Amino acid sequence: MKTDRYLLSILVDDEPGVLSRIAGLFSSRAFNIDSLSVANTTEPEISRITMVTRCEPHIIEQIKKQLNKLINVITVNDLTDKKYVQRQLALIKVNAQPEKRAEILRIVDIFRCKIVDVGLSHYTIEMSGNSDKHDAIISLLTPMGIIEIASTGTIALARENGR
Amino acid sequence: MKLTGAQILLKMIKEEGIDTIFGYPGGAVIDIYDAIAKQNQVKHILVRHEQGAVHAADAYARANKSVGVALVTSGPGATNTVTGIASAHSDSIPIVIFTGQVPTGLIGNDAFQEVDTVGITRPCTKHNYLVKDINRLASTIKEAFHLASSGRPGPVLVDLPKDIMQTIIDFKKPANVSLKSYRPNYKPNKKQLTKVVELIQNAKKPVIFAGGGVILSKASEQITTLAKMANIPVTGSLMGLGAFPGSDPLWLGMLGMHGTYRANMSIGNCDLIIAAGVRFDDRVTGSIDTFAPHAKIVQIDIDPTSIHKNIKVQCPIVGDCKTALEGIIQLMGNKTFDRHSEWIGQIQEWKETTPLRYDQGGKIVKPQFVIEKLYELTKGEAIITTEVGQNQMWAAQYYHFDKPNHFITSGGLGAMGFGLPAAIGAKAACPDKLVVDVAGDGSIQMNIQELMTAVESELDVKIVILNNQYLGMVRQWQELFYDKVYSSTAMVNAPDFVKLAEAYGAKGLRCDKPDEVEATLSEGLNSKGTIVMDFIVDREESVYPMVPAGQAITEMLLV
What we know:
The structure holds two protein chains of two kinds. Chain A is an alpha+beta fold. Chain A has two domains: 4-78, 2-Layer Sandwich (Alpha-Beta Plaits); 85-158, Alpha-Beta Plaits, CATH 3.30.70. Chain A is built from four helices and nine strands. In chain A, strand 2 and strand 3 (46-55) form a beta hairpin. The radius of gyration of chain A is 19 Å and the shape is elongated. In chain A, 25% of the residues are buried. The model of chain A has no long low-confidence stretch (mean pLDDT 93). By secondary structure, chain B is an alpha/beta fold. Chain B has three domains: 2-170, Rossmann fold (3-Layer(aba) Sandwich), CATH 3.40.50; 190-353, 3-Layer(aba) Sandwich (Rossmann fold); 367-536, Rossmann fold (3-Layer(aba) Sandwich). Helix content of chain B is 36%, strand content 17%. In chain B, the strands form four sheets. Chain B has a six-stranded parallel β-sheet with strand order 3-2-4-5-7-6, with helices on both faces. Chain B has a six-stranded parallel β-sheet with strand order 11-10-9-12-13-14, with helices on both faces. A six-stranded parallel β-sheet of chain B has the order 16-15-17-18-20-19, sandwiched between helices. In chain B, helix 3 crosses helix 18 (419-429) and helix 16 crosses helix 22. Chain B starts with a strand and ends in a 23-residue tail after the last strand. In chain B, 56% of the residues are buried. At the A-B interface, helix 1 and helix 2 of A face loops of B.
């Protein structure tokens, strides 16, 4: 079955249990969540959830309607076919023996990343970008020996006229 | 006005116009029960199991056309409500369930009789709340009633920690509910309504398909008007029975797995379906690929998620059924419509060649015969509740409901044990009506303890047990699809229902002869008090027509 990637920006009441209502909806109806990111907005009672989901085209309509049906969901904005900016943040701790350090720094430079922590045998790199960039830097750093990675889900906002 | 949390709860229930609630006490709600004892505005009916309280509240809501209320304690009290809540959720019935909870300071500590009630009931409620601040209590209760009864109705649960019920505050009436994230769309799009009129004008073989939503939005009159205006035959889902008069010549009978031949054939051959308040459940559609292959489908529903969920429709209308149907009727105005005489003739032929049928020859009582006699004797005026299984299907097929809110059944969830507590709830809502629970010998045993509730509360209900000493519907499947391996479905060891009725202080009657059915029913229905009528029926009678699961609904197994 052909699946597509959809990016939803969801405003919700900032209340206990809201995330579990959304997660419960997805698990009970066998929808998939690729990534999920939740944070406050400028309004104290509202949070924004950015979600990436993969499904067949006819399922996304049902997902959006089911999300809208949840009492705590205020709006569901499907950014997929709109103009938007998206970012993913990753912290990558990589093995940095003296003979590899120059190569790692070159990669960091090419990808316009930052070293945010240094030790005798490691660098921790901060990367922000879209998921392609994320995948690309990981593949280049893998031969150096990645010790561990922490990365966020995608966050996104519509461009000025993309609401 | 200084009030405790418990007093605020009762005050808010009264404000909603609810005069009867169903419940069961326990440690976490003892303060609420203390407050109940000290007032006389809200009547409390003590059930014998919390599941019964929720089913009773469900039926109260349906019979009374209002919201039903159940009150139970924390922990096991709350978990025992889950089946009832899930049933109301499947059938979109407006109820509010109040559950006790351990004091706020103990929440999360695995305290005695603590469960995460909000977590457990999240998937089977429309919404739920845990009240942690006494200042939010009144507004939360108001919101709960608003959510339960508006839009697509459903169960809403409010979890009430014990200390909140004890706290005293200065009570202020909460403001009207306004939720930025919840504004159900009642008003349909007019363009879509115009399209419906065109579709009706162009249709040669139209059918109206009415569901529970028509009854919930009180749109029976509109469905009937629409059907008459363009001479359109009407079928219904199980939940839609009574939405259109069952004795009207345009009535096709129920649709689906145990639908009538003419209803299923009509859907298979029609060129237009006007579906109102239905969600195209698998029991109605059979195999989706072959459902109504020649039809354009109009679907009216207040809940956008019901549309395009199972069946693709050509003309979706999001809105209240009643408002939408009124709009369509208005647009039809003085236009003249074809009488579809060829189509009506075809349907009549199906009706004549292949009616619902059974054979009451011989010395064994046929269950269908009991229902037919029940219908005759009550003149179709009784409120009928059912258990689940064959009894439910025979009641649906052979009791012809002329009015809405008279058939109360666990449709979507199919919860056995529903009928008896439901009959109690319906009787509490409509004390002047005759209320009959059509039961099987299996399912009546699932909430048999509620006989005590009926007797104690003097809510006289009449129970008709179609006793075939089998879990009949499962037996029927085993007969047809599992080589007659009747695994665990023979229930030859049952209590003596007549003695059991007497043990509870009710009256029991037994009948095992066809020529005594009428007399037994007549005695049972006309006697005062709660009566159990135990009809010993043909053990291996099956419900027909039947569409095997997943097949086209036009491919029915007939008698």
